[in-house]
Amino acid sequence: MKIITLDENNPYSEMLYYSLDNMMNFGWKYLPFIFLKNVYMDGEKLQLPRWITKKYMDTIDVDVQKLMQELNWE
C-alpha cells in the first residue's frame, strides 16, 4: 500500500487531496481489479487499497491502520 502525501505548504494541496480521494473512491467502486489488492486473513479474502492519501488514512482508526499495513506488506 502506497500512502500519497502532499506538501502541506502548497496552497492547492487541499484541492489535490479532494481530487485524489474522489478518483480513488471511483476506482475502488468501479475498477477494483486495478485499485484494490486481494489479501487473505484467516481464510477470508479482503480487498485493501493499493494507494491511499495521507489525509484519508488519518480518518481511519489507528488499530485498523496498523492491521491494514501488516496485511498489505506481507
Model description:
The chain is α+β, with helices and mostly antiparallel strands. It has one domain. Helices cover 51% and strands 24% of the residues. The strands form 2 sheets. It has a two-stranded parallel sheet. β2 and β3 form a beta hairpin. The longest helix is centred in the first third of the chain and has 18 residues. The protein is globular, with a radius of gyration of 13 Å.
Query: How many strands?
Result: 4
Low-pLDDT regions: none
Helix content: 40-55%
The secondary-structure element order is EHHEEEHH
How many helices?
4
Estimate the global geometry from the Cα principal axes.
globular
Q: Give the N-to-C terminal Cα separation.
A: 11 Å
What share of residues are in beta strands? 15-25%
Instruction: Output the radius of gyration.
Output: 13 Å
**Average residue-wise pLDDT:** 91
> Major β-sheet, in short?
2 strands, parallel
| Strand order, sheet with most strands | 1-4
Summing up helix and strand content along with how strands pair, one would put the structural category as alpha+beta
The figure for the number of domains is 1
